[in-house]
Design brief:
Blueprint lengths: L4 H5 E2 L3 H8 L2 E3 L1 H6 L12 E2 L4 E3 L2 E4 L1 H7 L3 E6 L3 H15 L2 E6 L2 H13 L7 E3 L3 H9 L11 H6 L3 E2 L4 E14 L24 E4 L5 H14 L1 H9 L3 E3 L2 H10 L4 E5 H9 L4 E4 L5 E10 L7 H11 L1 H10 L2 E2 L8 E2 L2 E2 L8 E3 L2 H18 L5
Parallel strand pairs: 1-12, 6-7, 6-8, 11-12, 11-13, 15-19
Antiparallel strand pairs: 2-7, 3-4, 4-5, 8-15, 9-10, 10-13, 10-14, 10-15, 10-16, 17-18
Pfam families: SBP_bac_6
Organism: Pseudonocardia autotrophica (Amycolata autotrophica)
Keywords: Signal
Length: 380
């Protein structure tokens, strides 16, 4: 790798990747319509609009709401990866016929923008989806989010994914483990367990994202400490991993073979090979970390029928199963076991599904963050 000290261990954003991955990206409804469909990922389910909107046998909107929504469009700010939200918005358009647009930005930037707009009484977004429960809590405390009940509220509450009296819900769970570059790592040396990343071949060749980038990275660090102890994290730090500021930059480095392996979300581990990247995702038998993915309706969205339909659709069978096809674990356990590519997704409660709950985060975040920064010599 040729770098030393902190410089070797931390990679920022080049001007080119900064423009591609970190500036807000707008996908307008018209542009989305020109893009290819999503049925190659999962067949589009049956739709009935004779009396409202019914998809896959579930009522998404009654007649009054659906008719009002068809004359509206929904605006979304998302901290998720571009491809994830792009696919989701396109699928929503295909299934509902309702226009949608989204702006993608890191959750910390999303928080700053929404608070700024709300403070100036110029809120421009109907729905926010973040990768950080703390950022969403801040928006709720600021009065930007409103309580909302989808038609599936009873089940969601029973599953523990409704927060702050309905001001936000977990749209699904994000699952994190690791992946490797198949052109760099020969098949006979392919890693299958977390312990394999401690092998000499991965010294200075592992990528990870800094712990402050969102709940996912915090949950992953907590998993490693809770499952294998502090010693594992320290030994991983001794491997000289490259610390990235964002997943987008990390994934580009992995795809190019600049690193041999990287901690990564299953959704990216599925999407990148589909686009031709030489990447193989690994879900170790010892488990993968799971984290909430907050979704919320804003004060502006509360008056927008299209935004309400999006919330309902995302938590419906159809919306949840499409999320599963991308590599996310559904928030609705009643849908049963799901598959994403070659992977059988674990369900909440399974041994391999290691969730960092809100209580876990409140109790352990400070210590985990301190340990991580020490181990990875990170001060950013």
């Amino acid at each position: 790798m040729g770098l030393s000290g902190t410089a070797r261990r931390r990679r920022g954003r080049s001007a080119r990747t900064g423009l591609a991955a970190l500036l807000a990206v707008v996908v307008l409804g018209g542009c989305a319509a020109e893009a290819s469909g999503t049925d190659d990922l999962l067949p589009v389910p049956a739709r009935d609009t004779s009396d409202g909107l019914v998809i896959a046998g579930e009522t998404i909107a009654d007649r009054e709401l659906y008719e009002a929504a068809r004359d509206s469009s929904v605006s979304i700010f998302s901290g998720m990866g571009f491809e994830t939200e792009d696919l989701t918005v396109r699928r929503f358009r295909e299934e509902t016929g309702i226009d949608a647009e989204f702006i993608r930005m890191p959750s910390n930037k999303l928080l700053e923008r929404v608070l700024s707009e709300a403070g100036a009484d110029r809120l421009s977004v109907d729905i926010v989806r973040t990768t950080d429960t703390k950022a969403t809590d801040t928006l709720a405390e600021a009065g930007v989010l409103v309580p909302y009940r989808t038609p599936f509220d009873e089940e969601l509450r029973a599953n523990g994914v409704v927060f702050d009296d309905g001001r936000y819900i977990s749209s699904f769970y994000s699952l994190y483990a690791f992946a490797y570059n198949t052109r760099v790592v020969p098949p006979e040396e392919a890693p299958t367990e977390w312990a394999d990343l401690l092998q000499p071949r991965y010294r200075n060749a592992i990528g990870t994202v800094q712990i402050g980038a969102g709940s996912y990275n915090m949950a992953l660090s907590d998993l490693l400490v809770q499952t294998f102890g502090e010693d594992y994290l320290r030994r991983l730090g001794e491997q000289g991993p490259i610390v990235y500021d964002s997943v987008a930059v990390e994934m580009e480095a992995l795809s190019r073979g600049e690193i041999a392996a990287a901690t990564v979300g299953l959704n990216n581990g599925i999407a990148l090979p589909r686009s031709g990247a030489p990447i193989k995702m690994v879900i170790p038998d010892s488990g993968a970390s799971a984290a909430y993915t907050p979704l919320a309706l804003t004060t502006r969205g509360a008056d927008n029928p299209a935004a309400q339909v999006f919330m309902n659709w995302q938590m419906s069978r159809s919306g949840q199963e499409f999320a599963a096809a991308q590599g996310f674990v559904p928030a609705r356990t009643s849908l049963g076991a799901q598959k994403a590519g070659e992977f059988d997704l674990p369900m909440p409660g399974d041994p391999g599904f290691l969730l960092m709950t809100q209580q876990d985060r409140a109790e352990r975040e400070k210590d985990v963050r301190k340990l991580w920064r020490e181990v990875f010599d990170y001060s950013g």
